[in-house]
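Worked example 3 (structure in, sequence out).
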């Protein structure tokens, strides 16, 4: 017997937005802190912000979507049929 799965509601959408903002703040703070402490150079900080930061946000979004129930698999899909036009 398959489990009953409900769609995420407005609270999940709000939690997703809040999680993305929190993840962005944490990531930007980490890069700024490493730069401020002299651990990374400006070139590395720029590389991290332009190349690595978007990838980090994708991972954050993936983790949040799984945690909040946005992950759907092939069993959640329903076939869509167009009504046949009468001739």
């Amino acid at each position: 017997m398959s489990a009953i799965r409900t769609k995420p509601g407005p609270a999940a959408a709000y939690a997703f937005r809040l999680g993305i903002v929190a993840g962005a703040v944490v990531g930007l703070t980490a890069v700024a802190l490493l730069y401020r402490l002299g651990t990374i150079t400006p070139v590395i900080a720029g590389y991290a912000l332009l190349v690595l930061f978007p990838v980090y946000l994708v991972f954050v979004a993936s983790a949040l979507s799984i945690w909040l129930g946005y992950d759907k698999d092939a069993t959640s899909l329903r076939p869509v049929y167009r009504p046949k036009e009468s001739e």
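Notes: The mean pLDDT is 86. The CA atoms of residues 26 and 72 lie 28 Å apart.
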